[in-house]
Automatic annotation (TrEMBL):
PANTHER family: COLLAPSIN RESPONSE MEDIATOR PROTEIN, HYDRANTOINASE/DIHYDROPYRIMIDINASE FAMILY MEMBER
Entries under InterPro entries matching the protein: Amidohydro_3, Metal-dep_hydrolase_composite, Metal_Hydrolase, Metallo-dep_Hydrolases_sf
Protein name as catalogued: Amidohydrolase family protein
One Pfam family of this chain: Amidohydro_3
Sequence ranges assigned to domain Amidohydrolase in this UniProt record: 45-549
Length: 571
């Protein structure tokens, strides 16, 4: 028997199957797991994992690294949170296929939908491709710290085929559908794992236009999904609106039924209909019993906005006195905000509605101080409204002072999905559903308002260890959900299990020390672009294809990650 390249000694293994924890050595040879149990031989390299949790690498099925993979080899922050495979191209947005004249159009769409600043995308993306196969070929020559998989984005495809008609959401013709289907088939042959689309009014370009895919017809979606699935396993990922769910979900199920294409979509709890998620899960379970492959993607915690002076939005952004100074650099703005007359003027004004889908007129009964350590499941009495009433003050004053704290870097937290009940009980039920997987981390996106790429870590810290306001989940369940179950949902049967023959993507975790820090703004994107990041402690080692890519939370500089070309089986 050949000498193992790496042996992880004596760890407590959660193998991704959902079974009980057990103590074992894990040997890795040639990028694959070669032995699990008591390994007698010595490895070329060894990691002492006694007292540590050993898990498969996590598979994040909902990210937006489509731009970042073109300028960076380190897929942070996901790779800092135990993720060893990230699937990008979600929500119908991406950068291939694209004609040269449409570069700006796709950048504006990504900026508007995913809050990735235009200067970052314009400076960072090299546009060394036009077709989707060209994009895949270009990416295949790059090395990363994790594996990345790509989906064909509907908006890019529609604009590529239909031009201005596609952008303004005209109905497609039979010729358009045939052209899109042909290109979709080519995308699968080049390695696309799926196809993504969006039907939500919240997805708009930075200039305010709705996404080109908003009202795409059933014939268009059926042609595309059918062509892709005929070429190989391909998942249809989509985002729907609550207001049109009663029409769009049955349509998507019909598309799945007629094409036999697996589908995957997001389910959240919405304040406008806080029990609708139950009905939706009932519908997809009924579809699964009919033989359809349907997966619900569930957020690990509230989908929450972070508001602050350094961020994309804040509660006072529509107040005239704030708008008058909003253009100033942070330190100049901060000096003005400390002036009593400016403070008085801003607090005397009220917020007005905008057409920005991520600006909500402030509800101080659902706005919190996130705290350190950050607390994403706070009781309603912790909100600024109740807190201000107990202090005999206005909540606007508390919000104003909170944002001025930490030299103007203070943040407010607004959970706007998955928190209708003031707790995460509904989220727990959603995660436990047999048709669901963890999703919606949006790694690489929402750089100045949402910081949810830490979902994989939160699933372990909050749900298996720290939760105080309800029932927890078990370590085996959480590990299986975000490794094996997510991998299978996108056709990657070669990973997500610690067992001989599987890809050697592994985490060694100091479970007791695993900890998320509060989000902070970093200016490390191209042209000094801003993004929210969350430091994490407790990942002793992350291993991709048998190579240690991170130790003690620091990158080793080794990048064995590659572009995934299509669905994968166990060799």
């Amino acid at each position: 028997m050949s000498t193992p390249d790496l042996i992880i000694r004596g760890g407590t293994v959660a193998d991704g199957s959902g079974g009980e924890l057990f103590e074992a050595d894990v040997a890795i040879t040639g990028g694959k797991i070669s032995e699990v149990g008591k390994v007698a031989s010595k490895g070329r390299e060894e990691i002492d994992a006694r007292g540590k949790l050993v898990t498969p690498g996590f598979v994040d099925v909902h990210t937006h690294y489509d731009g970042q993979v073109t300028w960076s080899q380190d897929i942070t922050p996901s790779s800092q949170n135990g993720v060893t495979t990230a699937i990008m191209g979600n929500c119908g947005v991406g950068f291939a296929p694209c004609k040269p004249d449409d570069h700006t159009r796709l950048i504006q769409l990504m900026e508007g939908v995913e809050d990735i600043p235009e200067p970052v995308l314009s400076a960072g993306i090299p546009w060394a491709w036009e077709s989707f196969p060209d994009y895949m070929d270009w990416l295949s020559r790059r090395d990363f710290d994790i594996d990345v998989g790509a989906q064909l984005p509907h908006a890019a495809l529609r604009v590529y085929v239909m031009g201005e008609r596609g952008a303004r959401r005209d109905p497609s013709t039979a010729e358009d559908n045939a052209a899109m289907a042909r290109l979709a088939g080519e995308a699968v042959r080049s390695g696309a794992l799926g196809f993504s689309t969006s039907r939500t009014l919240n997805h708009r370009t930075s200039t305010g236009d709705f996404t080109p895919t908003l009202k795409a017809g059933e014939d268009e979606l059926t042609a595309i999904a059918g062509a892709m699935h005929r070429q190989g396993r391909s998942v249809l990922q989509f985002v729907l609106d609550l207001s049109t769910l009663h029409e769009d979900l049955p349509m998507m199920l019909r598309v799945a039924d007629s094409t036999k294409c697996p589908i995957s979509f997001s389910i959240t709890q919405n304040d406008k209909a806080p029990q609708r998620w139950r009905q939706t899960l009932d519908e997809i379970n009924a579809a699964a019993r009919r033989g359809l492959s349907v997966t619900a993607q569930i957020a690990a915690r509230p989908v929450g906005l972070l508001l602050g002076l350094e961020l994309s939005r804040n509660p006072f952004q529509t107040h005239p006195s704030y708008r008058a100074i909003a253009h100033l650099p942070l330190q100049e703005r901060l000096a003005r905000l400390h002036q009593p007359d400016v403070r008085k003027a801003i607090l005397s004004e009220t917020a007005t509605a905008t057409d920005d889908p991520l600006f909500f007129r402030p509800d101080y009964d659902k706005m919190f101080l996130l705290g350190d350590p950050p607390d994403y499941e706070q009781p309603p009495e912790n909100a600024l409204g109740p807190l201000a009433r107990r202090q005999g003050r206005r909540p606007e004053e508390l919000a104003y002072d909170a944002m001025l704290s930490d030299d103007g870097r203070g943040m407010l937290y607004v959970p706007f999905l998955n928190y209708s009940d003031g707790n995460l009980d509904a989220t727990r039920e959603m995660l436990l559903d047999p048709q669901s997987v963890p999703g919606l981390s949006d790694g690489g996106a929402h750089c100045g308002i949402i910081c949810d790429a830490s979902f994989p870590t939160y699933l372990l810290t909050h749900w298996t260890r720290d939760r105080k306001r309800g029932e927890k989940l078990t370590i085996p369940f959480v590990v299986a959900a975000q490794s094996r179950k997510t991998a299978l949902s996108v056709g990657l049967a070669d990973r997500g299990l610690i067992a001989p023959g599987y890809k050697a993507d592994v985490n060694v975790i100091d479970y007791d020390r695993l900890h998320l820090h509060p989000p902070k703004v970093h200016y490390d994107l191209p042209v000094g672009g801003r993004r929210l990041l969350q430091d994490v402690d407790g990942y002793e080692a992350t291993i991709v294809s048998g190579v240690v890519t991170r130790r003690q939370g620091e990158a080793t500089g080794r990048r064995p990650g590659r572009l995934i070309r299509g669905a994968q089986g166990v060799n």
